[in-house]
Amino acid sequence: MAAQANVGGVKAVEAGTRGGWRMALPGSLWLVAFFLLPLVIMAIVSFMSLGARKTIVMPFTDANYQRVLSALYLPTIWDSVWISLVTTIICLLVGYPLAFFISTRKSQFARQLALFLVILPFWTNFVVRTYAMQTVLAREGVLNQILLSLGVIQNPLELLYTPGAVIIGLVYGYLPFMVLPIYATAERFDFKLVAAANDLGANDWQAIWRIIIPLTLPGVIAGFILVFIPCLGAFVTPELLGGTSTLMIGNLINSQFEESNYPRGSALSITLMALVMIALLLYVRFGTREQT
Amino acid sequence: MPEVAVDLRHIIKEFPGQRRDVTFRAVDDVSLEILEGEFFALLGPSGCGKTTMLRMIAGFELPTSGEILLRGKAMQDVPPFHRPVNTVFQDYALFPHMTVLQNVMFGLEMEGVKKAEASRRADEALDMVRLPQMADRKPRQLSGGQQQRVALARALVKRPQVLLLDEPLGALDLKLRKEMQIELAEMQDELGITFIFVTHDQEEALTMADRIAVMNGGKVLQVGTPEEIYDTPNSRFVADFIGETVFLPGLMAGKDGEFGWVQLDGVETKIKASLAATDIAENQSVTVAVRPEKINLFPIKGKVRYPDGSSDEASEYKTALLRDPDINLVEGIIKSANYIGTDTRYTVSVGGHDIVVRIQNYGLRSDTHFEPGQHVNVFWDAETVRILVQ
Question: Which residues fall within 8 angstroms of residue A188, CB to CB, at 6 or more apart?
Answer without folding.
Answer: none
